[in-house]
From TrEMBL:
One of the protein's GO biological processes: carotenoid biosynthetic process
Record protein name field: 15-cis-phytoene synthase
Organism superkingdom: Eukaryota
CDD domains in alphabetical order: Trans_IPPS_HH
Catalysed reactions, semicolon-separated: 2 (2E,6E,10E)-geranylgeranyl diphosphate = 15-cis-phytoene + 2 diphosphate
Known EC number: 2.5.1.32
Family: Belongs to the phytoene/squalene synthase family.
Organism: Ostreococcus tauri
Cellular component, GO annotation: plastid
Keywords, alphabetical: Carotenoid biosynthesis, Transferase
The keyword Transferase is assigned to this record: yes
Example GO molecular function: 15-cis-phytoene synthase activity
Length: 408
């Protein structure tokens, strides 16, 4: 599932080669001069590229070195909580030291066009997330869009239409490409937007590495026995987004407390969002990917088997959702709501221009849980969502919540 990003990435598939950045012009070096249009393109070209694999020559080549094997991550001795804490420490230290990546020299019109493509992708595939970004300052908007598109491209490696062609070696190459981005060596103009973001905000590489490890987990692990196992996965594919975004949001200018507290709240929001994604997409994940993300030990407590989840749980006599599934879903929704509550603790510590966007995204995403309930807990045949009008009606209340800053 990984952020619940489905479908193809349209015109932003990774390309081979590198962008040679000179002060006056940008040229492509490599076999494929243009595998991805980032200027929008025609409707016909967009339709064509939507079906194209994200895995091109740059990922099919042998990696320079062997990285972590998927099995080693799944069977590692380090817990997900420890992995998360390690990344939190690294991100907080970098933000406090205000360390940015090296600047790249790319024509502003090239970057503007690439950022616009990032905006389009975010708007099309992450509507709730995009709504929150529209309440940010222009610079923060662009930075968040660049991060989102990198995350989406990463997710498409294992959940896209050509995921069957992705190998552990392809993920090794993707991680090498990530390192190049942090060193100011983008492969294409979409990479360049992330390079530009990293040169403006003190974002650490560790959560990006951890997200790639989450994709490695998806290659070999379609089930999670316990919530602790699921927690690690949720951190890697969603909590990481909170760590990536936190330096862009920034803390309130009068904040004197421990920045790690704010990072922990960001992690909680990522966890809450991913738990919500999992509950919303139970049917889709089971039907299309043979994946069950909800903890198997929880299913057993409610007397539910894996096969029943894969088939869909409906009463053979009434056609209604099975009572066991209703009770199970109530338990899962209650857990997710508690995590959303934990996330609230840090929102008002953020900079004033980030509080309203984050509150808005939190409130809207939490409402997906209400929509699951409104659907009678049928997440096998119905996809819960929040109508656009309801999203806009939530904005005033989110704005009110965002007004009072927390400075410690």
């Amino acid at each position: 599932m990984s952020l619940a990003m489905r479908g193809a990435l349209a015109d932003c598939a990774p390309s081979t080669g590198t962008i040679a950045c000179t002060g006056s012009r940008t040229r492509r070096v490599g076999r494929y001069e243009r595998v991805a249009r980032c200027d929008g393109g025609s409707n016909a070209s967009r339709a064509k590229t939507r079906s194209r694999a994200i895995a091109d020559g740059s990922l099919l080549a042998s990696p320079k070195s062997t990285r972590r094997r998927p099995e080693d991550i799944v069977n590692g001795e380090v817990s997900g909580y420890e992995v998360e804490q390690r990344a939190l420490e690294a991100c907080a230290a970098r933000q406090l030291a205000n360390v940015m990546a090296p600047k790249i020299s790319v024509p502003s019109e090239t970057l503007d066009t690439a950022y616009e493509r990032c905006r389009e992708v975010t708007a099309e595939y992450a509507k709730t997330f995009y709504l929150g970004t529209k309440l940010m300052t222009p610079e923060k908007q662009r930075a968040i869009w660049a991060i989102y598109v990198w995350c989406r491209r990463t997710d498409e490696l294992v959940d896209g239409p050509n995921a069957s062609h992705i190998t552990p070696e392809a993920l090794d190459r993707w991680e090498e490409r990530l390192e190049g981005i942090f060193e100011g060596r983008p492969v294409d103009v979409i990479d360049a937007t992330l390079c530009d973001t990293l040169a403006r905000f003190p974002v650490d590489i560790q959560p990006f590495r951890d997200m790639i490890d989450g994709m490695r987990m998806d290659l070999v692990k379609p089930r999670y026995e316990t919530f602790d196992e699921l927690y690690e996965y949720c951190y890697r594919v969603a909590g990481t987004v909170g760590l990536m975004s936190m330096p862009i949001m920034g803390c309130d200018e009068n904040f004197t407390g421990d920045v790690k507290k704010v990072y922990k709240a960001a992690l909680a929001l990522g966890l809450a969002n991913q738990l919500t994604n999992i509950l919303r997409d139970v049917g889709e994940d089971a039907r299309e990917r043979n994946r069950i993300y909800v903890p198997l030990e929880d299913l057993k407590k409610f007397g539910i088997s894996e096969q029943e989840v894969l088939r869909g749980m409906f009463s053979p006599t009434t056609g209604k959702v099975d009572d066991r599934w209703v009770a199970f879903m109530k338990f899962q929704i209650d857990r997710a709501r508690k995590v959303f509550k934990d996330a609230e603790d840090g929102v008002n510590c953020l900079h004033k221009d980030a509080r309203w966007p984050v509150w808005s995204a939190l409130d809207v995403y939490r409402s997906i849980l209400d929509a699951i309930e409104a659907n009678g807990y049928d997440n096998f045949t119905q996809r819960a969502y929040v109508p656009k009008v309801d999203k806009f009606l939530m904005l005033p209340q989110s704005y009110i919540k965002a007004q009072e800053a927390r400075t410690s």
